[in-house]
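Two proteins follow. First one:
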Amino acid sequence: MPKTYQRREFLAELAKIPCATLLLGVTGPLKVLADDGEGGYDAAEHYYAMGIQLEKCIGCGKCVQACKTENDVPEEPFYFRTWIERYVIYEDGDVQVDSPEGGINGFPPLEGDKKILRTFFVPKLCNHCDNPPCVQVCPVGATFKSEDGVVLVDEDYCIGCRYCIQACPYGARYLDPRTKTADKCTFCYHRITKGLLPACVEVCPTQARIFGELGKLSTPLNRMMRHSNIQVLKPHMNTEPKVFYSELDGEVR
């Protein structure tokens, strides 16, 4: 089982690693994972993103369930690659946000006498940024962006330092308690390299999630982006996210 280092111990160990090994950590995982898949998959021919139509999300939790099953996410209710938040906007201006067990079992009825202005659900996941801070802070190159635009983690290189977890402005990473390495959404990379949809997209009963490629005008994703009011989470962070939301409410954070 990989060792988890404290900062001082980690820096001391890092100083012992030959430069060639560090360089391998930066370039090795990219080649191994980008070439993954069957049928001669060429990562350079693709550039993936996801769209989420908030007006269609019903908060059923099927996407969370499918993700946990497909990607062997720990069963504990605080480990998620994707989760759902419910926003409740009251007439007096108060905002309530909840996500019981990540929304995996849906949401309980709202209680209380306060008048509600509107409610909506917001699925969240790794944003697979074009300018990912998690990649910038990883000291060994375990976190990297593949040619097809997917941010991945190679657990064989990850040393569990948690720098990427702290750097992610979206709270989309966790430390797997079994491997002591960082984990997060990969757009179900093992599926998309075989021409399949991510598990969360495949099971969505309302087609709130749309997966596709940027730059190809005929795809459902690009049609959504042309015909909807599109926003991203935390645009001020300049991470250039590739998860796009339609009709994103200003209260979402």
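Second one, unrelated to the first:
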Amino acid sequence: MPETIVRLLDQGAEANYRDRFRRGNVVNLPVEGSLIATGDLHGHRRNFERIVTAADLENRPDRHVVLQEIIHGGPENAQGGCLSYQLLFDVVRYKLGFGDRVHILMGNHDTAFINDSAVIKNGKEMNQSMRLALDREFQQDSERIKTGIAQYLLSQPLAVRCPNRIWLSHSLPGNAYVDAFNKQVLGKRLRIEDLVRPASGYLLTWGRNHSQETVDKMARLLDVDSFILGHQRQEQGWCRAGDNLIILGSDHNHGCLLPIDLGRSYTVEELVDSIVPLTSIA
């Protein structure tokens, strides 16, 4: 079992790096086909199953799926340990099953696990909770599993660029740090030091409450029109957080997804009208 998991994580990392649409840390999607965009999952298995059903990749060979922030949340063991790594393993299997059509974005909880730093969710320090659960399940092999998880998470891209000028990433740099963001991080192989505050990989996963000025500045820098982000919890599953910014959440019963036709352009109003509640998917 531990050997199987370590091999799975190694294969998942290799698949991330070898994604034929990836250039540096950005996945550049083709003009043909469609995309299912989602927000944070945080261990919500039922919503992952709904996303898989909606995407129907077996019958839609031109469709892509973007997932993000799989860990930290969801079911716990009897001692209160976070079991979200079990969903992470299944998401890696999903990636391996459909290769270059499943893309998992780097999130701030991922950077926290990579750096073994504290991250709070619902009043609980999630890294300790998940690491203790890994210790209990894998015992003497847990350190190898933790290393495999960290290496897998480090392999994830930072962003997805759509041909219709839509950009997906976990977040954007906060207002106070937008001028410190160096887009060269998008073109290199990520290292751990890129994900430590205030490095640019960190900034792209931790920013909140963006002003319109910040969003517009990032749109010019990245040469895009609209942003779809996660990171900030959305009690109703989504919000329009600016003229050209939508935030999605997929980690609770009001979670949503957003289908996008890659071959056409959208106004933000049209994107909002396309949002689908996950509970509507059988």
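SUMMARY FIELD: The chain has one domain: 2-280. The chain has a mean pLDDT of 97.
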